[in-house]
What we know:
This protein is mainly beta. Among the domains are: 46-250, no CATH class; 407-559, Immunoglobulin-like, CATH 2.60.40; 600-660, no CATH class. It is built from four helices and 29 strands. The chain has helices at 2-57, 69-72, 76-86, 111-117, and strands at 122-130, 132-138, 144-148, 151-155, 163-168, 176-181, 184-187, 193-200, 234-239, 245-250, 312-316, 322-326, 354-359, 362-367, 406-408, 421-424, 435-438, 442-451, 458-476, 495-512, 515-523, 529-539, 551-559, 607-608, 614-616, 619-630, 638-650, 654-656, 659-661. The strands form nine sheets. A five-stranded antiparallel beta sheet has the order 2-1-8-5-6. Strands 17-23-22-19-20 form a five-stranded mixed beta sheet, with no helix packed on it. A hairpin with a 2-residue loop joins strand 28 and strand 29. It is flat, with a radius of gyration of 52 Å.
Amino acid sequence: xxxxxxxxxxxxxxxxxxxxxxxxxxxxxxxxxxxxxxxxxxxxxxxxxxxxxxxxxxxxxxxxxxxxxxxxxxxxxxxxxxxxxxxxxxxxxxxxxxxxxxxxxxxxxxxxxxxxxxxxxxxxxxxxxxxxxxxxxxxxxxxxxxxxxxxxxxxxxxxxxxxxxxxxxxxxxxxxxxxxxxxxxxxxxxxxxxxxxxxxxxxxxxxxxxxxxxxxxxxxxxxxxxxxxxxxxxxxxxxxxxxxxxxxxxxxxxxxxxxxxxxxxxxxxxxxxxxxxxxxxxxxxxxxxxxxxxxxxxxxxxxxxxxxxxxxxxxxxxxxxxxxxxxxxxxxxxxxxxxxxxxxxxxxxxxxxxxxxxxxxxxxxxxxxxxxxxxxxxxxxxxxxxxxxxxxxxxxxxxxxxxxxxxxxxxxxxxxxxxxxxxxxxxxxxxxxxxxxxxxxxxxxxxxxxxxxxxxxxxxxxxxxxxxxxxxxxxxxxxxxxxxxxxxxxxxxxxxxxxxxxxxxxxxxxxxxxxxxxxxxxxxxxxxxxxxxxxxxxxxxxxxxxxxxxxxxxxxxxxxxxxxxxxxxxxxxxxxxxxxxxxxxxxxxxxxxxxxxxxxxxxxxxxxxxxxxxxxxxxxxxxxxxxxxxxxxxxxxxxxxxxxxxxxxxxxxxxxxxxxxxxxxxx
Length: 667
């Protein structure tokens, strides 16, 4: 009986243990299911919370800036995003629904919340780009980011991370976040990248054992996370690193550039550069691209319209721009039946002695004076082709008799064909071209003026100038106006140039019978750069027959001399120049400031010179040396000393040979 009771109790215990095990297994399965559902709810909630924060923090009038990447940049920009995906550790450019692009405001969300928003479980590390990539937060070591802010390479290395969340741009300029899974990737985006956050999955402990365990939707072992590539306009499903089934789609308007597409801007609308069939829009496709077109008539582009007189018309140009043509009015450069002319050449009457002019679309003809046409005609004594006096043939085509003619001599050797000779005052070496003069030196300017009419005496005025600033105009000798240039800078019509800055260095009157030679002193102190020296001569109260040689000029360049320490002139790279090469006098032998003393004692202690005593005013004196610091403690300080008489003893009676003497005793 006892044995039977024991067996029953033992069997009951076994049954209770078995039932208790079933209860534990059921509780474990239910707990994992609840945790998974809670995790999915938290991920969805986090993304909604971030998007909600974005909208709440942006003013209503700027909420249009919170747009997905597909609305930010169209066409080729979508291609840039997909290109970065294809280079991410072997991952395909397709992303799952939990790792797509999203519009965030700047800096919203912690590292974990950013990762959660894209389906990851936790944040691993965050990098920030500020010219260079630097670590911002790091929970697990091992990640790396290299490159720059618009072209970066990321690698999870030994961190165990499963992917990244990238922040590009900012909310005011179409900024966005998006994620990529994999072990590494190259990013080349349309906007500068500010942050890269590395993220990871927890995943079931047995995910990857090729067995679908509790809480797993799939498990393909080492093939987990191998992203599939859907056919165009189709879908595909792969098993993620967290043993979840992920479904990808491919279609026009998904903001991902496929081989079948030229562009993909995330919509199926025409007129935005990428048409509804994901083909690039172009001028001539009969679709008005609102970005850079105002019209598009296809084959009708570039066909001109013809307006009626006084009206206008508009056509679509080859560039898909509306062009308006105004026609049929005076001034449109199109000759109409109602007009005589549009330009002067329309009025050509083939008469060389009339000036043909189109005025208000009507022709006018004005006779041209015949004198000056180089044809000697009836009533003319001459015609030299101009209307200038004093050139042998007057402005009325009458012969002139030359009685006075003076001119500058250009042919003598020292002037080298310029009419102006230049040499340093201290030498007899006349300078050839180019003329390079040294600042602060004196020079001699020499010139000759010849009397070209024998047996005459001419009163002349001579002006010598130094000119700078470029030519601002011309002046005719004895009159205003006229243009032209000839030998020495004067025109055949007696025209001389006017410079922006003219300084007279000689202006005098004289008389000549054969020739006049003069040498003018020229000091170049205060001048530096490129100048022209000019000599001008004119007759006084008389007309000069030939004005072509009344003006000469020569270009000179004035430069700084080579610095010379010790010449008492502070020059380039010198701090001082005291006229010697002695040190310890405030200015060194290299012409640099010295600081030799701060006080008198630095120069020496005042003392007796040690010489013999001597008498001054019947008192005994001795030489005493006094030391002085000049400009103490400053640049250029130096020591001096002077020897002064020092009173040693006052004599009662007299002083002789440095000793006091007594009066002679009475005899």
